[in-house]
Inverse folding.
């Protein structure tokens, strides 16, 4: 459970940094919102890839170890 909290804190930290950078660039009159609006589906793709990776990793960790007592 502690590992999940660390991962969650890391994700929220990255999200806050990204939003802070976006607003900072907006203050310097850099038109970043057009790019954000155009490429926001990439966030969904990365989020889905992360969920898939974590799910496969958990499934592999939960799989029973092969029984090596009957080796020839």
């Amino acid at each position: 459970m502690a590992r999940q909290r660390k991962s969650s804190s890391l994700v929220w930290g990255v999200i806050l940094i990204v939003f802070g950078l976006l607003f900072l660039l907006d203050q310097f009159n850099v038109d970043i919102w057009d790019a954000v609006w155009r490429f926001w589906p990439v966030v969904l793709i990365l989020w889905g890839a992360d969920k898939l990776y974590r799910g496969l990793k958990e499934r592999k960790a939960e799989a029973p170890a092969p029984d090596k007592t009957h080796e020839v």
Observations:
- The CA atoms of residues 9 and 15 lie 10 Å apart.
- The radius of gyration is 20 Å.
- The chain has a mean pLDDT of 81.
- The chain is about 75% helix and 0% strand.
